[in-house]
Design brief:
about 5% strand, single chain, mainly alpha, globular, two-stranded parallel sheet
Length: about 55
């Protein structure tokens, strides 16, 4: 899994799972500068309510 793939999947469904969020936090120290910006954008979308924490079926 990559942060770009995760970002696109989250944007298209409006949902991010707990496992995906856990993956982001565990791997954030290894992210490039661009990947860090993408992770920050995910956080902003969660904070603003545009992404929900849930599960995809």
């Amino acid at each position: 899994m990559g942060i770009g793939t995760l970002f696109l999947a989250s944007i298209s469904t409006g949902i991010i799972t707990q496992d995906e969020l856990r993956w982001v936090t565990r791997n954030q120290l290894e992210f490039s500068r661009c990947e860090q910006a993408t992770a920050l954008k995910l956080g902003q979308l969660i904070d603003s309510g545009q992404l929900q924490l849930g599960c995809r079926i």
